[in-house]
């Protein structure tokens, strides 16, 4: 079976990458729910496909036939409300960023909220989301943030925080990421 390739990319530009990727693809907001929603729409129409996270804010869709690929590209109602553009696959695509989970240890419970974790995450890269269990305080000894960071950037081991007159450190570490759009 021949596979046809189309890369689908999400809506908002990442300012740090504008100069690098502007000629290749329009970058966007990494929202895994959007990818899952589009995949569900494709499944309900009986299309043979798979979607793969490539890095950065790029998703690769592989289709079972040229007809299925063209149907996807031309049926904007399947993806127009979720993605800005869909481009043909090119092997020159070289993601300049990666998604990582950042584990945060040492956050005082009185600062345990989405705003605080977003601020910590912005010290590392672009915050995609704060993990649901962290938001619902399922554990208070550690929390997790999904962050998009430049490909060669390393997460700092320690982030010093000052809130009012109080100073403390948050220990941070990178965890591996598994992306599943099913």
TrEMBL record:
Q: Which domain of life is it from?
A: Eukaryota
**Full protein name:** DUF4283 domain-containing protein
Q: Which organism is it from?
A: Dipteronia sinensis
């Amino acid at each position: 079976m021949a596979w046809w390739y189309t890369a689908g990319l999400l809506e908002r530009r990442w300012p740090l990458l504008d100069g690098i990727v502007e000629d290749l693809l329009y970058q966007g907001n990494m929202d895994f729910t959007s990818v899952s929603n589009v995949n569900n729409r494709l499944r309900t129409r009986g299309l043979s496909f798979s979607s793969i996270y490539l890095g950065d804010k790029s998703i690769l869709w592989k289709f079972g036939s040229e007809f299925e690929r063209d149907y996807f590209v031309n049926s904007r109602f399947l993806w127009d409300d979720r993605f800005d553009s869909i481009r043909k696959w090119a092997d020159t695509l070289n993601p300049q960023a990666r998604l990582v989970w950042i584990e945060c240890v040492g956050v005082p419970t009185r600062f345990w909220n989405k705003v605080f974790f977003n601020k910590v995450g912005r010290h590392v890269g672009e915050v995609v989301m704060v993990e649901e269990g962290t938001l619902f305080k399922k554990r208070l000894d550690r929390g997790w943030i999904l962050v998009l960071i430049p490909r060669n950037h390393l997460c700092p081991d320690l982030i010093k925080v000052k809130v009012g007159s109080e100073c403390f450190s948050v220990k941070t570490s990178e965890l591996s990421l598994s992306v599943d759009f099913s």
